[in-house]
Design goal:
The complex is a heterodimer of chains A (904) and B (438). Among the domains of chain A are: 246 residues, Leucine-rich Repeat Variant; 87 residues, no CATH class; 118 residues, Immunoglobulin-like, CATH 2.60.40; 112 residues, TATA-Binding Protein (2-Layer Sandwich), CATH 3.30.310. Chain A has 38 helices and 13 strands. In chain A, strands 1-2-3-6-5 form a 5-stranded antiparallel β-sheet. In chain A, a hairpin with a 6-residue loop joins strand 7 and strand 8. In chain A, helix 1 runs antiparallel to helix 2, helix 7 runs antiparallel to helix 8 and helix 18 packs parallel to helix 19. Chain A starts with 15 loop residues before the first helix and ends with a helix. The longest helix of chain B has 19 residues. Chain B has 4 domains: 122 residues, Beta-Lactamase (2-Layer Sandwich); 34 residues, no CATH class; 129 residues, Immunoglobulin-like (Sandwich); 102 residues, Immunoglobulin-like (Sandwich). Helix content of chain B is 18%, strand content 41%. Classes of the chains: A alpha+beta (904), B alpha+beta (438). Chain B: Belongs to the adaptor complexes medium subunit family.
């Protein structure tokens, strides 16, 4: 029954709109219907047909259901741009919602909910109320979803009109589809609300589990997803739940299966009986394997989830490794994920088979896949000690094929194997050296140079080999330069003969005088000084024994894994990132209740820590490739953590290799002077104690910079500080370190702060109330102002394209504008520098008439971006600032911050 | 959150919007530009079906010459979204009568809009059963009861159907002759090493059913699977007749099958939808009867010559035969000349896929035809890299043969009117991905 609608697309005559207008007003029904179809066709291909609004709406009063649906579709698309005219449609909607035909009643309510115009929303309430109690289940199931729509537009209205209660009543409806939709709506409302609205009690639980048997496949997904939040009281209840959910594993719909797996895994945490757990693992394996015969896209989702599942419960698929063998025609994204899981499941029992597969893959065509296969061999070697030798022999066979990128990749992983099993497999170095000339990738080169330096005493011609690299030293990428520097020093210390001595002169000269790279220069100076003051110490430092590595590159942090497993089947489980890192729409303060397991203070630490910081410099680059959306939630390594007890040279080198911020003198935190801080508690109020303070950002962390001045006659001690609830949940991360203050003494300190600890409800405010006490005086209270810019994180930089995308993707209602008539920008450069210093990143600039328009991006924790547009005439007073952000309620705070920044 | 989509787009290969439907307000109307710019026009296309751009995530699938793109901004249920797309395409196909491509979309855009409105509400998938939707969404549009006579009331009935417990079957069906057709279709997936050892082998089977039954029949299906038989003998407390039993690794069922009952009693009982549907899928890895063995020997004689010998052995019964057998033997890109000798069928060199293609239309059991070919290569300096040998691939169909050994033991039909039914069963085994490394 194929149609012939394509004719509606083919009107290209001039004056199309007037023509359509005429047809829409035709007295013939058929002609009107055709005209509406043409309008919809035009709308589909992106033409603006909003000017026909009145004419189309006039066709709404029709007996023809198809025509009515088309008009409704038009309304959904254009009502927002013509809110005043949209009101014309209300009467018809209200009338339709009382139509004897349930399809029309449902259609009216469904469509009204999609029209986000305030005036229409008011009229929606009465019909919705009626439809929630309609006799026809089709109408009720549509009304249930409509409550969620309305909540999204106007939450207050939903609560005031008692729709939530009606919705809860629908959970007990006798029709399973109504139940399922009501559950979906309630779950969504709960997710966007601060109050507990939809609490799953054991009573609702059993009711919903019963409904599970009867509702449609999609309804089962809604219910299972909602129930997976339920925490069973004890092991017995958990077992009961699992028993009733397990049959779902046999469903043909992959979404039902994954949601059932999610729920079972959640409940399994509570089950203590090992027999039950083993049995469940056995039951879950076949359905998971079956997912791999679905469409490749679904396979991909399944594989990303299986990756998580095997990290928590490796036994489930321990015997199924064969199903993850790649098929020749699998899409690349499926192959890559399969490889990752094969590495996870590789064991002493199956390694021979696995290696044969990897070897086979390493000869395929797709370069990325081949590389990953080679790396996989290396990772298996690091993981399975007993198989390491077999892995190496496979790698050597691959090197013999002499395919350039295979060789390079192999060398990178062999370097890692050396680091895992030092002094075991050096016999193969000779073979590696044969491929020296073919290396052209920095990482491979750096790895090879590291190997040469590390084993210089066993390679007869190590000096010649290194020398061949030295010629091109200035042109090499920094990664290779750093390795060359260290390797040459190692060589010199191991073979202090004439050749190496000359080489080291050249290298040190190149790495200090000739270079602009501070990392390289600093490291070179350190070596230089070490070598010139105490060569023995240099030996201890540079040639010290290195810690053995392990393959944990793709293991997720347990608490992150927990969170991801609770999100099986969702985007979060595919990205391997917690939802709040990619969902920009942040709700006011609800997260407290859900996120309790993860101290929110970590949040600032999410920013991808330079994972290789601890070994990216002198020690070789780690090769362990991380999954595309790698584990982000690892606490940033504290720069000074590996205290040089037995001085590890490479770490020392790195310490300096870190970004410049890290070079702050360690004692600065305690005593630094610095610009004066605003006085918040004057001595007159504080019985002689004067406190000045300000929030500051340093090294990517937020500190409260405080100065205490004791102008009283007594020594003050036992200082403590407390912050009242505030919009950002700022709280002290440690205790206040202030020694007793003698009369006349003053002390400055930096108090590290964390975010999202004690959030206050309500609209964001910049008020920060502080209380300070000491053993001698009463408690002092004072108010400070939170300046938003201290929160700007250093990952707020946006590419121009993503800036444009984000700008466009945000609705116009999120744009807020403010003018600062009193502020003057006298120098663009100076201002840009100042803004950049506070992590407000410059993106682009353009001229508009005589004005300069600047674009910036900034980001505050929880990933809330700000897109900023500044318009001004350089040298003249008056700045206009427009911002766009998913959280426009932050705008006033932002403007306060920008005003301070521009005035400074 | 089980939301599956904020918006859905149908694009042609150039990136033009064929149809779009916004279900939620949280994604901008022009997100498709982002998709075009960041995915379609870059090499990224095909590297990953789930992508994040700006604040939105995109899931996409290509079906014939159409991209179906779903956009969300929340932590949506991806599995649900992809499954929704698959099911929606099946639904459209059943409406258009087969093809789903750019032309079909343009020709049916009004219908598709209507369906999109019905099958998803605010991003939540609703009923997607073609059987039920066809009751009230038709090409012509359903008349409103404003005009129609009060006696003519197919519509209110439809709404109960949509939401009913048996949401896949219409009431009041009448057939003169009550018939059921069962097709057991198995695909054998094989990966064999060049030395002839089986690296991976499994059978994915499906039971397709075509029902022409009156009323609301209850059906029960019995197979020769181990667990089902054991349970049955327990219940009847007598041993079942000996015979081959097979072990199913996994089964998944159409939503009409009562899963709870399957779990407790191991019986497949259901009220079938009318017409054609896929009743169940299963997978077997143990005890697979491979219909063919392929024994390749490929010798590279110097840089310009290659000798290819392939022997294919059919190991099913001599009275049976396979149809449409195609064996694709890969050769290097720089192949210049080929010459063949085959003992059965025809062979030729296909330069477009760099393969020798050997076709045998009818392939009897217990035979072993061979192909021997000589391949001459152009010697090029550029091809330093040794030839990475892709696997030999094979296609075939063997009627009345199941690689798993699965048999239908019975199909019982109960209906309150007590009519007699005729059941027809067919078996066929096809090649899934049947690969032999060489």
């Amino acid at each position: 029954m194929s149609g012939h609608d394509s004719k509606y697309f083919s009107t290209t005559k001039k004056g199309e709109i007037p023509e359509l207008k005429e047809e829409l007003n035709s007295q013939y029904k058929d002609k009107r219907k055709d005209a509406v179809k043409k309008v919809i066709a035009a709308m589909t291909v992106g033409k603006d047909v909003s000017s026909l609004f009145t004419d189309v709406v006039n066709c709404m009063q029709t007996e023809n259901l198809e025509l009515k649906k088309l008009v409704y579709l038009y309304l959904i698309n254009y009502a927002k741009s013509q809110p005043d005219l949209a009101i014309l449609a209300v009467n018809t909607f209200v009338k339709d919602s009382q139509d004897p035909n349930p399809l029309i009643r449902a259609l009216a309510v469904r469509t009204m909910g999609c029209i986000r115009v305030d005036k229409i929303t008011e009229y929606l309430c009465d019909p919705l109320q009626r439809c929630l109690k309609d006799d026809d289940p089709y109408v009720r199931k549509t009304a249930a979803i409509c409550v969620a729509k309305l909540y999204d537009i106007n939450a207050e209205l939903v609560e005031d009109r008692g729709f939530l209660e009606s919705l809860k009543d629908l959970i007990s409806d006798n029709n399973p589809m109504v139940v399922a939709n009501a559950v979906a709506a309630l779950a969504e409302i709960q997710e966007n609300s601060t109050r507990p609205i939809f609490e799953i009690t054991s009573h609702t639980l059993s009711k919903l589990l019963t409904a599970l048997n009867e509702c449609t496949e999609w309804g089962q997904v809604f219910i299972l997803d909602a129930l997976s939040r339920y925490k069973a009281a004890d092991a017995r209840e958990a077992e009961n739940i699992v028993e009733r959910v397990t049959p779902r594993l046999q469903h043909a719909n992959c979404a039902v299966v994954l949601s059932a797996v999610k729920m079972i895994l959640q409940q399994m945490e509570l089950i203590t009986s090992t027999d039950v757990v083993r049995n469940l693992c056995k039951k879950m394996a076949p359905p998971l394997v079956t997912l791999l015969s679905a469409e490749p896209e679904i396979q991909y989702v399944a594989l990303r989830n299986i990756n998580l599942i095997v990290q928590r419960r490796p036994t489930i698929l321990a015997h199924e490794i064969k199903v993850f063998f790649c098929k020749y025609n699998d899409p690349i994204y499926v192959k890559m994920e399969k490889l990752e899981i094969m590495i996870k499941l590789a064991s002493d029992r199956n390694i021979d088979q696995v290696l044969l597969e990897f070897k086979e893959y390493a000869t395929e065509v797709d370069v990325d896949f081949v590389r990953k296969a080679v790396r996989a061999i290396g990772r298996c070697a690091i993981k399975l000690e007993r198989a390491a030798e077999r892995c190496i022999s496979v790698l050597l066979e691959l090197i013999k094929i002499k395919v350039n990128y295979v060789v390079q990749e192999a060398i990178i992983v062999i370097k890692d194997i050396f680091r895992r099993y030092p002094n075991t497999y050096e016999s193969i170095i000779a073979t590696l050296c044969e491929s020296l000339d073919t290396l052209d990738e920095p990482e491979a080169k750096a790895s090879m140079i590291w190997i040469i330096g590390e084993y210089a005493e066993r390679i007869d011609n190590a000096d010649e080999l290194l020398e061949s690299f030295l010629e091109s030293f200035p042109e090499e990428p920094p990664q290779v330069q750093l390795q060359l520097l260290t390797a040459t020093v190692k060589l010199f210390l191991k073979k202090p003969t004439e050749g190496p001595q000359q080489m080291i002169q050249v290298v040190l000269n190149n790495a200090t005088v000739e270079t602009d790279n501070p990392d390289l220069r600093d490291r070179a100076y350190i070596y230089w000084r070490l070598l010139s003051t105490d060569p023995e110490a240099a030996k201890d430092v540079v040639l010290a024994e290195k810690p053995v590595i392990s393959d944990d590159s793709n293991q997720l942090d347990p608490s992150l894994l927990d969170e991801l497993l609770a999100n099986i089947a969702t985007l979060s489980s595919v990205y391997h990132k917690p939802p709040d890192t990619f969902v920009t729409r942040v709700k006011p303060a609800t997260q407290r209740t859900e996120d309790d397991e993860y101290p929110d203070g970590n949040e600032t630490g999410y920013a991808e820590s330079p994972a290789n910081a601890a070994d990216g410099g002198a020690s070789p680059p780690t090769s362990s490739s991380s999954v595309p959306y790698g584990a982000a939630r690892q606490p940033a390594p504290a720069p000074a953590a590996p205290a040089p007890v037995a001085p590890v040279p490479d770490l020392l080198g790195d310490l300096i290799g870190l970004d410049n911020n890290a070079i702050v003198p360690a004692d600065q935190h305690a005593t630094s002077s610095g610009p004066p801080l605003p006085i918040l508690l004057p001595a007159s109020t504080g019985q002689g104690l004067q406190i000045s303070a300000q929030l500051a950002r340093q090294d990517g962390q937020i500190f409260y910079s405080l100065q205490f001045e004791n102008n009283s006659q007594i020594t003050l001690d036992g200082f403590m500080i407390q912050f009242n609830k505030n919009s950002f949940g700022l709280a002290a991360a440690g205790s206040l370190q202030v020694p007793p203050l003698a009369p006349g003494a003053s002390r400055r300190t930096l108090l590290p702060m964390v975010l999202f600890q004690n959030m206050s409800a309500g609209p964001p405010s910049s008020l920060l109330q502080v209380a300070v006490k000491n053993n001698q005086q009463p408690v002092w209270y004072f108010n400070d102002k939170i300046l938003l810019h201290v929160f700007f994180t250093d990952d707020g930089r946006m590419e121009r394209t993503s800036f444009l995308e984000t700008w466009r993707s945000l609705p116009d209602s999120n744009e807020v504008l403010k003018e600062f008539p009193g502020i003057m920008v006298s120098s663009a450069e100076a201002t840009l520098d100042r803004l950049a210093a506070t992590n407000m990143f410059f993106i682009a600039k353009r001229k508009h008439a005589n004005q300069d328009v600047f674009y910036f991006s900034a980001k505050i924790p929880r990933g809330i971006p700000f897109l900023i547009e500044l318009t001004t005439v350089i040298g003249n007073p008056g700045v206009k600032c427009a911002i766009k952000t998913p959280n426009p309620e932050m705008a006033p705070l932002f403007f306060e911050a920008i005003e301070t920044l521009l005035k400074a | 959150m089980p939301v599956a989509a904020s918006a859905i787009y149908f694009l042609n290969l150039r990136g033009d919007v064929l149809i779009n439907r916004l279900y939620r307000d949280d994604v901008g109307g022009n997100m498709v530009d982002a998709f075009r710019m960041h995915i379609m026009q870059t090499k990224e296309l095909g590297t990953c079906p789930v992508r994040q751009i700006g604040g939105c995530s995109f899931f996409y699938m290509r079906i014939s010459n159409v991209y179906i793109v779903i956009v969300v901004s929340s932590n949506a249920n991806v599995a649900c979204a992809f499954k929704f797309v698959v099911e929606a395409v099946a639904l459209f196909k059943s409406y258009f009568g087969g093809a789903f491509d750019e032309d079909a979309i343009r020709n049916n855009f009004v219908l598709i809009y209507e369906l999109l409105d019905e099958i998803m509400d605010f991003g939540y998938p609703q009923n997607l059963s073609p059987e039920i939707l066809k009751l009230y969404i038709t090409q012509e549009g359903v008349r409103s009861p404003f005009s129609s006579k009060p006696s003519d009331k197919p519509v209110p009935n439809a709404t109960l159907q949509v939401t009913g417990a048996v949401g896949w079957r219409r009431e009041g069906l009448v057939y003169k002759k009550n018939e059921v057709f069962l097709d057991i279709v198995e695909s054998v997936n094989l990966l064999m090493s060049s030395k002839g050892s089986v690296l991976r082998c499994d059978v994915t089977g499906k039971i397709l059913m075509k029902c022409f039954l009156s009323g609301m029949p209850d059906l029960k299906l019995g197979l020769n699977d181990k667990i089902g038989l054991e349970k049955e003998s327990q219940l009847k407390s007598r041993p079942t007749k000996s015979g081959k039993t097979i072990e199913l690794d996994d089964v998944t069922f159409h939503q009409c099958v009562n899963l709870t009952r399957f779990n407790s009693e191991k019986t497949v009982s259901f009220v079938p939808p009318d017409g054609e549907f896929e009743l169940m899928k299963y997978r077997i890895t143990e005890g697979v009867n491979l219909p063919f063995r392929v024994l390749p020997t490929i010798k590279e004689l110097g840089r310009t010559r290659m000798e290819v010998n392939v022997k294919v052995k059919s190991v099913f019964g001599a009275k049976m035969f396979a149809l449409g057998v195609v064996i694709k033997i890969p050769v290097p890109k720089q192949t210049a000349k080929t010459s063949f000798q085959v003992t059965s069928g025809r062979a030729k060199y296909n330069a477009a896929i760099d393969c020798l293609v050997w076709k045998i239309r009818k392939f009897p059991g217990q035979t072993e035809p061979t192909l021997s070919a000589e391949v001459e290569l152009i010697s090029t300096m550029a091809e330093k890299k040794s030839w990475t040998r892709p696997p030999i691939q094979m296609e075939f169909q063997v009627p009345m043969f199941t690689a798993s050994g699965l048999r239908v033991r019975f199909l019982k039909v109960w209906e309150k009117s007590g009519y007699n039914t005729v059941e027809w069963v067919r078996y066929i085994t096809k090649a899934g991905s049947y690969e032999v490394r060489c």
